[in-house]
Specification:
alpha+beta
Length: 98
Amino acid sequence: MDKDEFGLPTEADVFEEIAKSDQQIKVSLVTRRYGKKITLVEGFDKQVDVKAIAKNLKEGLACGGTVKNSTIELQGDHKKKVKPILVKIGFSADAISD
């Protein structure tokens, strides 16, 4: 979270934290061509920075991935590992479904 010159969170950060608590996120596994597995993380609103979330997930899982239409695609089967990282980022554990 970014801080202003007084060490307080900026207004945009406060709104993003509130938006994170209202999300209904779905984590699913899809098999693509040639048997490649892709983990999909979807259900993000426009209010959160999906690219920053994708970056945190890719770093935490040590995998590649991309963002397409507010859906994060991660290379490999990471269905069980995504939820703890999202909770650490600030999402509600109850709002994340497998």
